[in-house]
Amino acid sequence: MARKYSKASGKKVEKTMKERKAGTLRSGRSGKKVTSRKQAIAIGLSEARRAGKKVPKKSSARKSSSH
């Protein structure tokens, strides 16, 4: 089976995780310090996506069916 994410995108996520650990990772719009692990991963994948690396597109919020 093929890789879902490229190695380069993994490196980008790794870099953002190190920035979070060092306390230098900031969120884009507000500029607040990022402390959430999930948010750091999301930022890394977003940057990789912008750089044109192999990253699956964002999954939209799933709507729960009430049937």
How does this model look, in words?
This protein has 67 residues and is an all-alpha fold. Helices cover 45% and strands 0% of the residues. The protein contains 2 helices and no strands. It has helices spanning 7-22, 37-50. The longest helix has 16 residues, at 7-22. The relative contact order is 0.23. The mean pLDDT is 87.
Q: What structural keywords apply?
A:
mainly alpha, 0% strand
In oligomeric terms, what are we looking at?
single chain
Number of helices: 2
Largest sheet: none
Provide the residue-averaged pLDDT. Answer: 87
Q: Radius of gyration from the CA trace?
A: 14 Å
Structural class: mainly alpha
In which range does the helix fraction lie?
A: 40-55%
* N-to-C CA distance: 35 Å
**Which H/E pattern describes the elements?**
HH
Say how many strands there are.
0
Low-confidence residue ranges: none
What is the molecular shape? globular
Task: Set out the fold topology.
Elements lengths: L6 H16 L14 H14 L17
Give the gist of this structure.
The chain is an all-alpha fold and 67 residues long. Helices cover 45% and strands 0% of the residues.
